[in-house]
Description:
The protein starts with 6 loop residues before the first helix and ends with a strand. Helix 5 links the parallel strand 1 (83-87) and strand 2 (106-110). It has one domain: Vaccinia Virus protein VP39 (Rossmann fold), CATH 3.40.50.150. The protein has 214 residues and is α/β, with parallel strands linked by helices. It has a seven-stranded mixed sheet with strand order 3-2-1-4-5-7-6, sandwiched between helices. It has eight helices and seven strands, in the order H-H-H-H-E-H-E-H-E-E-H-E-H-E-E.
Amino acid sequence: xxxxxxxxxxxxxxxxxxxxxxxxxxxxxxxxxxxxxxxxxxxxxxxxxxxxxxxxxxxxxxxxxxxxxxxxxxxxxxxxxxxxxxxxxxxxxxxxxxxxxxxxxxxxxxxxxxxxxxxxxxxxxxxxxxxxxxxxxxxxxxxxxxxxxxxxxxxxxxxxxxxxxxxxxxxxxxxxxxxxxxxxxxxxxxxxxxxxxxxxxxxxxxxxxxxxxx
Length: 214
């Protein structure tokens, strides 16, 4: 597999990590770069991301995907043995980057579309991600219950995504999602919803990490 090679993107990503006060090992960074290359190559065969985003995959998509790790890993107790399912995994964000940076957790990439499932399974094997399982079903039929975390990234509205996720969480579990801030600004007045606003490198739009306990 060709190594991801974009010095500007790598610099933006490293600067982003420094701003978040996050240190990742060289081997972890290398695996994130390898995942980026898998998606960029796979995008030539199927529509995993928009063509415009292929040139900024590290700074836009992977940086966004690891925000739960950057902001919440200690606050929400993301510790060894916890189970995390991602609804509608698509091309693998955020679940693949999260599985790479948190190898001590068990992840499930839940995706019903067959071509995407094939891509996710192949990518998992290429990266050697033993802590990740690809589940080729709709989330509602995946039979994943008593989960510590459920995530999604820009699937639907927060309210719709929460309704799909909440009954599969433990009583102490959390639903975590990543959205543009403008789409969830109305939730700032909801005491049950927690919002962390952030910016991504060279992006004008403001983003939000949103989480709610069951």
